Amino acid sequence: MARTLEKKTLTDWRKTRGLSVEEFAERIEVSKGAAGDYLRGRKEPGVLRAIRMAEALGVKVEQIAWDADMAPRPTAEQLPAMPEGEGVTPERLAVAREWLAAGATKVEVARAMNVSRATLYAHL
Protein backbone atom coordinates (compact mmCIF):
# COMPACT_ATOMS: atom_id res chain seq x y z
CA MET A 1 0.00 0.00 0.00
CA ALA A 2 1.37 3.42 -0.98
CA ARG A 3 2.01 5.77 1.87
CA THR A 4 0.56 9.28 1.62
CA LEU A 5 3.16 12.01 1.94
CA GLU A 6 2.61 14.58 4.66
CA LYS A 7 1.74 17.97 3.17
CA LYS A 8 2.34 21.36 4.83
CA THR A 9 2.76 24.99 3.80
CA LEU A 10 6.22 26.47 3.32
CA THR A 11 5.87 28.29 6.62
CA ASP A 12 4.82 25.14 8.45
CA TRP A 13 7.74 23.15 6.99
CA ARG A 14 10.15 25.98 7.89
CA LYS A 15 8.91 25.96 11.47
CA THR A 16 8.93 22.14 11.65
CA ARG A 17 12.57 22.18 10.57
CA GLY A 18 13.38 24.85 13.17
CA LEU A 19 14.65 27.32 10.57
CA SER A 20 14.48 31.07 10.99
CA VAL A 21 13.42 33.12 7.98
CA GLU A 22 17.08 34.16 7.62
CA GLU A 23 18.27 30.54 7.57
CA PHE A 24 15.61 29.59 5.05
CA ALA A 25 16.61 32.56 2.87
CA GLU A 26 20.26 31.51 3.02
CA ARG A 27 19.43 27.96 2.03
CA ILE A 28 17.40 29.03 -1.01
CA GLU A 29 19.89 31.79 -1.85
CA VAL A 30 17.54 34.79 -1.72
CA SER A 31 17.25 37.85 0.50
CA LYS A 32 15.32 37.66 3.77
CA GLY A 33 12.64 39.90 2.22
CA ALA A 34 12.23 37.63 -0.81
CA ALA A 35 12.03 34.56 1.46
CA GLY A 36 9.32 36.32 3.48
CA ASP A 37 7.42 37.04 0.28
CA TYR A 38 7.51 33.36 -0.67
CA LEU A 39 6.50 32.29 2.84
CA ARG A 40 3.53 34.70 2.89
CA GLY A 41 2.45 33.79 -0.64
CA ARG A 42 3.14 37.26 -2.03
CA LYS A 43 5.57 35.81 -4.53
CA GLU A 44 5.18 32.53 -6.42
CA PRO A 45 8.37 30.55 -7.03
CA GLY A 46 9.36 29.18 -10.42
CA VAL A 47 10.00 25.46 -10.82
CA LEU A 48 13.72 25.60 -10.02
CA ARG A 49 13.19 27.80 -6.96
CA ALA A 50 10.40 25.47 -5.75
CA ILE A 51 12.76 22.49 -6.05
CA ARG A 52 15.45 24.41 -4.16
CA MET A 53 12.91 25.24 -1.42
CA ALA A 54 11.87 21.62 -1.07
CA GLU A 55 15.51 20.51 -0.89
CA ALA A 56 16.27 23.19 1.72
CA LEU A 57 13.40 21.85 3.83
CA GLY A 58 14.29 18.19 3.26
CA VAL A 59 10.96 17.36 1.62
CA LYS A 60 9.61 16.57 -1.83
CA VAL A 61 8.01 19.37 -3.84
CA GLU A 62 4.74 17.42 -3.68
CA GLN A 63 4.78 17.78 0.11
CA ILE A 64 4.46 21.55 -0.03
CA ALA A 65 0.88 22.85 0.07
CA TRP A 66 1.41 25.60 -2.50
CA ASP A 67 -2.24 26.59 -2.75
CA ALA A 68 -2.38 27.41 0.96
CA ASP A 69 0.77 29.54 0.64
CA MET A 70 -0.59 31.36 -2.37
CA ALA A 71 -3.88 32.35 -0.79
CA PRO A 72 -4.86 35.84 -1.90
CA ARG A 73 -4.41 38.66 0.60
CA PRO A 74 -7.57 40.44 1.69
CA THR A 75 -8.18 43.70 -0.13
CA ALA A 76 -8.25 47.02 1.70
CA GLU A 77 -12.06 46.91 1.49
CA GLN A 78 -12.13 43.57 3.32
CA LEU A 79 -10.04 44.83 6.25
CA PRO A 80 -11.38 47.09 8.98
CA ALA A 81 -10.60 50.77 8.49
CA MET A 82 -7.90 52.29 10.64
CA PRO A 83 -9.65 54.40 13.29
CA GLU A 84 -9.11 58.14 13.00
CA GLY A 85 -6.75 59.77 15.43
CA GLU A 86 -3.10 60.21 16.21
CA GLY A 87 -0.56 57.83 17.62
CA VAL A 88 -1.10 54.33 18.92
CA THR A 89 -4.35 53.83 20.77
CA PRO A 90 -5.79 50.47 21.88
CA GLU A 91 -8.40 50.66 19.09
CA ARG A 92 -5.85 51.47 16.39
CA LEU A 93 -3.48 48.79 17.71
CA ALA A 94 -6.27 46.17 17.52
CA VAL A 95 -6.90 47.06 13.87
CA ALA A 96 -3.14 47.06 13.19
CA ARG A 97 -2.91 43.51 14.55
CA GLU A 98 -5.80 42.44 12.28
CA TRP A 99 -4.02 43.93 9.28
CA LEU A 100 -0.77 42.15 10.19
CA ALA A 101 -2.58 38.83 10.66
CA ALA A 102 -4.12 39.30 7.21
CA GLY A 103 -0.67 39.75 5.66
CA ALA A 104 -0.06 43.49 5.66
CA THR A 105 3.54 44.49 6.28
CA LYS A 106 4.59 46.45 9.34
CA VAL A 107 5.64 49.26 7.01
CA GLU A 108 2.12 49.42 5.53
CA VAL A 109 0.57 49.43 8.99
CA ALA A 110 2.93 52.10 10.33
CA ARG A 111 2.11 54.33 7.34
CA ALA A 112 -1.64 53.84 7.84
CA MET A 113 -1.24 54.79 11.51
CA ASN A 114 1.03 57.71 10.60
CA VAL A 115 3.68 56.55 13.08
CA SER A 116 7.26 55.41 12.64
CA ARG A 117 8.04 51.71 12.37
CA ALA A 118 9.97 51.96 15.65
CA THR A 119 6.85 53.31 17.39
CA LEU A 120 4.73 50.52 15.96
CA TYR A 121 7.28 47.84 16.89
CA ALA A 122 7.39 49.13 20.46
CA HIS A 123 3.65 48.47 20.79
CA LEU A 124 3.44 45.08 19.11
TrEMBL record:
InterPro entries: Cro/C1-type_HTH (IPR001387), Homeodomain-like_sf (IPR009057), Lambda_DNA-bd_dom_sf (IPR010982). SMART domains: HTH_XRE. It comes from the Bacteria. Transmembrane segments: none annotated. Coiled coil: none annotated. Residues 10-64 form the HTH cro/C1-type domain. It holds the Pfam family HTH_3. PROSITE patterns: HTH_CROC1. This is Helix-turn-helix domain-containing protein. It comes from Deinococcus taklimakanensis.
